[in-house]
Amino acid sequence: MFEGLFSRGRNDDRSVDATAPIKPEITRPSIGLALGGGAARGFAHIGVLQTLAAHGIVPDVIVGTSIGAVVGGCYASKQMDNLESWARGLKVRSIFSYLDISLSGSGLINGGPLASKLIEALGDTRIEDLPLRFAAIATEFNTGHEIWLTRGRLSDATRASYALPGIFPPVKIGGRWLVDGALVNPVPVSAARALGARLVIAVNLNADLFGRGTIIADHGSDQEDDNAAAEMARPQGLRGMFSGEKSLRRQFFGTRGRPGIPTVMVEAFNVMQDRITRARLAGDPPDVLISPRLGKVGWFDFHRGADAIKIGAEAAEKAMEGITEALAGLSQPFAAK
To answer: Rounded distance, CA 313 to CA 299, Å?
Structure first.
Protein backbone atom coordinates (compact mmCIF):
# COMPACT_ATOMS: atom_id res chain seq x y z
CA MET A 1 0.00 0.00 0.00
CA PHE A 2 2.75 2.44 0.95
CA GLU A 3 4.77 1.48 -2.12
CA GLY A 4 1.89 2.38 -4.40
CA LEU A 5 1.40 5.63 -2.60
CA PHE A 6 5.04 6.62 -2.94
CA SER A 7 5.16 5.58 -6.62
CA ARG A 8 2.15 7.76 -7.37
CA GLY A 9 3.92 10.63 -5.70
CA ARG A 10 6.99 10.14 -7.89
CA ASN A 11 5.09 9.74 -11.16
CA ASP A 12 2.54 12.56 -10.63
CA ASP A 13 3.72 15.83 -12.16
CA ARG A 14 1.50 17.70 -9.69
CA SER A 15 3.30 16.23 -6.67
CA VAL A 16 4.67 18.53 -3.99
CA ASP A 17 8.15 19.88 -4.65
CA ALA A 18 10.46 18.24 -2.10
CA THR A 19 12.76 21.27 -2.21
CA ALA A 20 9.99 23.70 -1.19
CA PRO A 21 10.38 25.09 2.34
CA ILE A 22 8.13 23.46 4.95
CA LYS A 23 5.77 25.92 6.59
CA PRO A 24 6.21 25.60 10.37
CA GLU A 25 3.25 24.88 12.56
CA ILE A 26 2.05 27.73 14.76
CA THR A 27 1.59 27.29 18.49
CA ARG A 28 -0.80 29.57 20.31
CA PRO A 29 0.12 31.17 23.62
CA SER A 30 -1.31 29.91 26.89
CA ILE A 31 -4.54 31.77 27.60
CA GLY A 32 -5.63 33.03 30.99
CA LEU A 33 -8.94 34.51 32.10
CA ALA A 34 -9.11 37.00 34.97
CA LEU A 35 -12.74 37.19 36.10
CA GLY A 36 -13.62 40.16 38.31
CA GLY A 37 -16.07 40.53 41.17
CA GLY A 38 -19.46 42.20 41.14
CA ALA A 39 -22.12 40.03 42.84
CA ALA A 40 -25.20 39.58 40.58
CA ARG A 41 -23.36 41.31 37.74
CA GLY A 42 -21.13 38.25 37.69
CA PHE A 43 -23.66 36.28 35.68
CA ALA A 44 -22.23 38.23 32.73
CA HIS A 45 -19.17 35.98 33.03
CA ILE A 46 -21.36 33.11 31.82
CA GLY A 47 -22.10 34.93 28.57
CA VAL A 48 -18.42 35.83 28.15
CA LEU A 49 -17.25 32.24 28.59
CA GLN A 50 -19.91 30.89 26.26
CA THR A 51 -18.95 33.35 23.52
CA LEU A 52 -15.25 32.59 23.87
CA ALA A 53 -15.98 28.87 23.65
CA ALA A 54 -18.08 29.42 20.52
CA HIS A 55 -15.02 31.03 18.91
CA GLY A 56 -12.71 28.23 19.98
CA ILE A 57 -11.04 30.18 22.80
CA VAL A 58 -10.29 27.64 25.53
CA PRO A 59 -8.42 28.95 28.60
CA ASP A 60 -5.48 27.19 30.19
CA VAL A 61 -5.70 29.31 33.35
CA ILE A 62 -8.70 30.80 35.15
CA VAL A 63 -8.37 33.13 38.12
CA GLY A 64 -11.48 34.64 39.70
CA THR A 65 -12.37 37.04 42.46
CA SER A 66 -15.70 36.79 44.30
CA ILE A 67 -18.46 35.90 41.80
CA GLY A 68 -15.69 35.52 39.22
CA ALA A 69 -14.29 32.65 41.29
CA VAL A 70 -17.73 31.02 41.42
CA VAL A 71 -18.30 31.19 37.65
CA GLY A 72 -14.71 30.27 36.86
CA GLY A 73 -14.84 27.32 39.24
CA CYS A 74 -18.07 26.06 37.69
CA TYR A 75 -16.52 26.35 34.23
CA ALA A 76 -13.39 24.48 35.27
CA SER A 77 -15.45 21.70 36.91
CA LYS A 78 -17.82 21.45 33.91
CA GLN A 79 -20.83 22.76 35.83
CA MET A 80 -21.58 25.74 33.58
CA ASP A 81 -24.86 24.34 32.29
CA ASN A 82 -26.16 23.87 35.82
CA LEU A 83 -24.99 27.35 36.82
CA GLU A 84 -26.66 28.94 33.81
CA SER A 85 -29.96 27.13 34.48
CA TRP A 86 -29.86 28.27 38.11
CA ALA A 87 -29.03 31.87 37.14
CA ARG A 88 -31.81 32.08 34.57
CA GLY A 89 -34.33 30.54 36.96
CA LEU A 90 -33.79 32.89 39.90
CA LYS A 91 -36.79 35.06 40.76
CA VAL A 92 -37.18 37.78 43.37
CA ARG A 93 -39.09 35.46 45.66
CA SER A 94 -36.60 32.60 45.34
CA ILE A 95 -33.69 34.92 46.14
CA PHE A 96 -35.10 35.50 49.63
CA SER A 97 -34.76 31.78 50.34
CA TYR A 98 -30.98 32.26 50.23
CA LEU A 99 -30.99 35.20 52.66
CA ASP A 100 -30.71 33.53 56.06
CA ILE A 101 -30.35 36.83 57.88
CA SER A 102 -28.66 36.75 61.27
CA LEU A 103 -27.69 39.60 63.58
CA SER A 104 -25.74 37.40 65.97
CA GLY A 105 -22.88 36.29 63.74
CA SER A 106 -20.04 38.04 61.92
CA GLY A 107 -22.18 38.74 58.85
CA LEU A 108 -25.73 39.89 58.16
CA ILE A 109 -26.27 36.70 56.13
CA ASN A 110 -25.06 33.32 57.36
CA GLY A 111 -24.84 32.04 53.79
CA GLY A 112 -25.86 28.47 54.64
CA PRO A 113 -28.35 27.89 51.77
CA LEU A 114 -25.97 29.38 49.20
CA ALA A 115 -23.06 27.31 50.50
CA SER A 116 -25.24 24.18 50.30
CA LYS A 117 -26.06 24.99 46.68
CA LEU A 118 -22.36 25.28 45.86
CA ILE A 119 -21.52 22.03 47.60
CA GLU A 120 -24.37 20.32 45.75
CA ALA A 121 -22.97 21.51 42.41
CA LEU A 122 -19.24 21.14 43.06
CA GLY A 123 -19.26 18.23 45.51
CA ASP A 124 -15.81 17.34 46.81
CA THR A 125 -14.03 18.53 43.66
CA ARG A 126 -10.52 19.68 44.50
CA ILE A 127 -8.76 22.51 42.74
CA GLU A 128 -5.63 20.45 42.09
CA ASP A 129 -7.73 17.86 40.21
CA LEU A 130 -9.22 20.36 37.74
CA PRO A 131 -8.22 20.02 34.06
CA LEU A 132 -6.79 23.56 34.03
CA ARG A 133 -4.94 25.84 36.42
CA PHE A 134 -7.33 27.66 38.73
CA ALA A 135 -7.13 30.09 41.61
CA ALA A 136 -9.73 31.88 43.70
CA ILE A 137 -8.60 35.19 45.19
CA ALA A 138 -9.38 35.90 48.85
CA THR A 139 -8.18 38.30 51.53
CA GLU A 140 -6.96 37.43 55.00
CA PHE A 141 -8.96 40.04 56.85
CA ASN A 142 -6.70 40.57 59.88
CA THR A 143 -3.45 40.90 57.89
CA GLY A 144 -4.62 42.14 54.50
CA HIS A 145 -2.67 39.36 52.76
CA GLU A 146 -3.79 38.50 49.24
CA ILE A 147 -4.44 34.75 49.30
CA TRP A 148 -4.43 32.63 46.13
CA LEU A 149 -6.44 29.49 46.78
CA THR A 150 -4.87 26.97 44.42
CA ARG A 151 -5.54 23.70 46.26
CA GLY A 152 -8.20 22.17 48.44
CA ARG A 153 -11.97 21.95 48.05
CA LEU A 154 -13.27 24.14 45.24
CA SER A 155 -16.51 24.95 47.07
CA ASP A 156 -14.58 26.24 50.11
CA ALA A 157 -12.35 28.42 47.93
CA THR A 158 -15.26 30.02 46.11
CA ARG A 159 -17.13 30.70 49.37
CA ALA A 160 -14.10 32.46 50.82
CA SER A 161 -13.62 34.52 47.68
CA TYR A 162 -17.17 35.98 47.78
CA ALA A 163 -17.38 36.49 51.57
CA LEU A 164 -18.14 40.23 51.42
CA PRO A 165 -17.22 41.64 54.86
CA GLY A 166 -20.26 42.47 56.96
CA ILE A 167 -22.63 40.68 54.58
CA PHE A 168 -21.20 37.13 54.73
CA PRO A 169 -19.11 35.73 57.59
CA PRO A 170 -15.44 35.02 56.92
CA VAL A 171 -14.44 31.48 55.95
CA LYS A 172 -11.62 29.64 57.72
CA ILE A 173 -9.32 27.73 55.37
CA GLY A 174 -5.95 26.34 56.37
CA GLY A 175 -5.92 28.26 59.63
CA ARG A 176 -6.64 31.64 58.00
CA TRP A 177 -9.88 33.63 58.20
CA LEU A 178 -10.65 34.76 54.66
CA VAL A 179 -13.02 37.31 53.12
CA ASP A 180 -13.79 38.71 49.67
CA GLY A 181 -10.78 38.90 47.34
CA ALA A 182 -11.99 42.18 45.84
CA LEU A 183 -10.55 43.94 48.88
CA VAL A 184 -7.09 43.43 47.38
CA ASN A 185 -7.41 42.28 43.75
CA PRO A 186 -10.82 42.89 42.10
CA VAL A 187 -9.70 41.82 38.58
CA PRO A 188 -6.81 39.37 39.16
CA VAL A 189 -4.67 39.86 36.06
CA SER A 190 -1.43 39.50 38.03
CA ALA A 191 -2.44 36.08 39.37
CA ALA A 192 -3.35 34.81 35.89
CA ARG A 193 0.10 35.78 34.60
CA ALA A 194 1.85 34.25 37.59
CA LEU A 195 0.06 30.94 36.98
CA GLY A 196 1.48 30.73 33.47
CA ALA A 197 -0.86 32.65 31.17
CA ARG A 198 0.95 34.33 28.27
CA LEU A 199 -2.18 36.07 27.00
CA VAL A 200 -4.56 37.39 29.64
CA ILE A 201 -8.18 38.27 28.92
CA ALA A 202 -9.72 40.19 31.82
CA VAL A 203 -13.40 40.83 32.52
CA ASN A 204 -14.21 43.93 34.56
CA LEU A 205 -17.84 43.92 35.67
CA ASN A 206 -17.74 47.43 37.10
CA ALA A 207 -16.53 49.41 34.11
CA ASP A 208 -19.61 51.62 34.35
CA LEU A 209 -18.33 52.83 37.73
CA PHE A 210 -15.11 54.18 36.22
CA GLY A 211 -15.01 57.95 36.36
CA ARG A 212 -17.93 58.10 38.78
CA GLY A 213 -15.82 59.47 41.60
CA THR A 214 -14.61 63.05 41.45
CA ILE A 215 -13.76 65.88 43.86
CA ILE A 216 -16.41 68.22 45.29
CA ALA A 217 -14.23 71.13 46.37
CA ASP A 218 -16.87 73.21 48.18
CA HIS A 219 -19.56 71.58 50.30
CA GLY A 220 -21.20 72.00 53.71
CA SER A 221 -24.40 71.65 55.74
CA ASP A 222 -27.66 73.42 54.94
CA GLN A 223 -31.15 73.91 56.42
CA GLU A 224 -32.21 70.36 55.54
CA ASP A 225 -29.37 68.98 57.67
CA ASP A 226 -30.46 71.14 60.62
CA ASN A 227 -34.03 69.82 60.38
CA ALA A 228 -32.80 66.21 60.28
CA ALA A 229 -30.62 66.73 63.35
CA ALA A 230 -33.57 68.21 65.28
CA GLU A 231 -35.76 65.23 64.35
CA MET A 232 -33.16 62.75 65.63
CA ALA A 233 -32.87 64.60 68.95
CA ARG A 234 -36.64 64.53 69.59
CA PRO A 235 -37.67 62.07 72.37
CA GLN A 236 -39.47 58.97 71.05
CA GLY A 237 -41.55 58.25 74.19
CA LEU A 238 -43.43 54.98 74.70
CA ARG A 239 -44.04 54.57 70.99
CA GLY A 240 -40.33 54.41 70.36
CA MET A 241 -39.77 51.90 73.14
CA PHE A 242 -42.18 49.37 71.65
CA SER A 243 -41.28 49.77 67.98
CA GLY A 244 -37.82 48.22 68.11
CA GLU A 245 -38.57 45.56 65.49
CA LYS A 246 -39.96 48.10 63.05
CA SER A 247 -36.98 50.36 63.63
CA LEU A 248 -34.57 47.50 63.04
CA ARG A 249 -36.31 46.64 59.78
CA ARG A 250 -35.97 50.26 58.62
CA GLN A 251 -32.28 50.23 59.50
CA PHE A 252 -31.69 47.05 57.52
CA PHE A 253 -33.77 47.77 54.42
CA GLY A 254 -33.66 51.57 54.58
CA THR A 255 -36.33 54.11 53.76
CA ARG A 256 -36.99 56.39 50.84
CA GLY A 257 -34.70 59.09 52.22
CA ARG A 258 -32.14 56.92 53.98
CA PRO A 259 -30.21 53.86 52.69
CA GLY A 260 -30.24 50.62 54.66
CA ILE A 261 -27.21 48.87 56.15
CA PRO A 262 -26.51 46.50 53.19
CA THR A 263 -26.79 49.37 50.69
CA VAL A 264 -24.33 51.52 52.63
CA MET A 265 -21.86 48.65 52.92
CA VAL A 266 -22.06 47.66 49.27
CA GLU A 267 -21.81 51.22 47.96
CA ALA A 268 -18.79 51.85 50.18
CA PHE A 269 -17.30 48.60 48.87
CA ASN A 270 -18.01 49.80 45.31
CA VAL A 271 -16.04 52.99 45.86
CA MET A 272 -13.09 51.09 47.28
CA GLN A 273 -13.19 48.44 44.56
CA ASP A 274 -13.32 51.08 41.84
CA ARG A 275 -10.17 52.78 43.15
CA ILE A 276 -8.29 49.49 43.58
CA THR A 277 -9.32 48.24 40.13
CA ARG A 278 -8.05 51.38 38.44
CA ALA A 279 -4.70 51.12 40.19
CA ARG A 280 -4.23 47.39 39.59
CA LEU A 281 -5.21 47.51 35.90
CA ALA A 282 -2.97 50.53 35.30
CA GLY A 283 0.00 48.75 36.87
CA ASP A 284 -0.62 45.36 35.24
CA PRO A 285 -2.97 45.74 32.26
CA PRO A 286 -4.40 42.65 30.54
CA ASP A 287 -3.79 41.94 26.87
CA VAL A 288 -7.54 42.23 26.26
CA LEU A 289 -10.08 43.86 28.58
CA ILE A 290 -13.77 42.93 28.27
CA SER A 291 -16.06 45.47 29.94
CA PRO A 292 -19.75 44.48 29.89
CA ARG A 293 -21.98 47.54 30.27
CA LEU A 294 -23.95 46.42 33.30
CA GLY A 295 -24.99 49.80 34.66
CA LYS A 296 -28.65 48.79 34.80
CA VAL A 297 -27.93 45.55 36.68
CA GLY A 298 -27.43 46.14 40.40
CA TRP A 299 -25.27 44.12 42.76
CA PHE A 300 -28.31 42.38 44.24
CA ASP A 301 -30.30 41.97 41.00
CA PHE A 302 -29.83 38.21 40.93
CA HIS A 303 -33.23 37.86 39.29
CA ARG A 304 -31.78 39.51 36.17
CA GLY A 305 -29.46 36.66 35.32
CA ALA A 306 -30.67 36.38 31.71
CA ASP A 307 -30.00 40.10 31.11
CA ALA A 308 -26.49 39.88 32.57
CA ILE A 309 -25.65 36.76 30.53
CA LYS A 310 -26.75 38.49 27.33
CA ILE A 311 -24.75 41.64 28.09
CA GLY A 312 -21.66 39.54 28.81
CA ALA A 313 -22.03 37.64 25.54
CA GLU A 314 -22.37 40.88 23.57
CA ALA A 315 -19.30 42.39 25.22
CA ALA A 316 -17.21 39.30 24.47
CA GLU A 317 -18.36 39.32 20.85
CA LYS A 318 -17.22 42.92 20.47
CA ALA A 319 -13.84 42.00 21.95
CA MET A 320 -13.20 39.07 19.59
CA GLU A 321 -11.29 41.15 17.04
CA GLY A 322 -8.87 42.28 19.72
CA ILE A 323 -8.52 38.75 21.06
CA THR A 324 -7.78 37.41 17.57
CA GLU A 325 -5.13 40.07 17.01
CA ALA A 326 -3.54 39.36 20.40
CA LEU A 327 -3.47 35.62 19.67
CA ALA A 328 -1.83 36.21 16.29
CA GLY A 329 0.72 38.57 17.78
CA LEU A 330 1.74 36.19 20.56
CA SER A 331 1.68 32.95 18.52
CA GLN A 332 5.04 31.51 17.52
CA PRO A 333 6.29 28.88 15.07
CA PHE A 334 6.59 25.42 16.57
CA ALA A 335 10.20 24.28 16.67
CA ALA A 336 10.43 20.52 16.22
CA LYS A 337 13.08 18.75 18.26
So the answer is: 19
Q: Choose the catalytic residue: 180, 274, 287, 301.
A: 180
Among candidate residues 30, 60, 66, 284, the one labeled active-site is 66
At 238 the pLDDT is: 46
* pLDDT at site 130: 98
Give the separation between CA 327 and CA 56, rounded to whole angstroms. Answer: 12
Taking phi over 0 as left and psi of -120 to 50 as alpha, with beta for the rest, 135 belongs to beta
Q: Give every CB contact of residue 334 below 8 A, 6+ residues apart in sequence.
A: 24, 25, 26, 27
> Distance between CA 236 and CA 229 in Å, rounded?
14
Q: What angle do helix axes 112-122 and 67-76 make, rounded to 10 degrees?
A: 20
Concatenating the DSSP letter of every residue in 120-177 gives HHHTT-BGGGSSSEEEEEEEETTT--EEEE-SSBHHHHHHHHT--BBTB--EEETTEE
Active site residue 180: yes
User: Cβ-count burial of 265 within 10 angstroms (0-12 exposed, 13-18 middle, 19+ buried)?
Assistant: middle
| Host H or E run for residue 62 | strand 61-65
Check residue 13 and give its pLDDT: 45
* Cβ 41 vs Cβ 297: under 8 Å: yes
pLDDT along the chain (337 residues), means of 10: 37 47 72 96 97 97 98 97 95 81 74 87 96 98 96 97 91 97 96 98 85 74 68 53 50 64 76 88 96 90 95 98 95 63
pLDDT of residue 99: 74
Confidence (pLDDT) at 269: 80
**133 pairs with which residues across the strands?**
61
94 among known catalytic residues: no
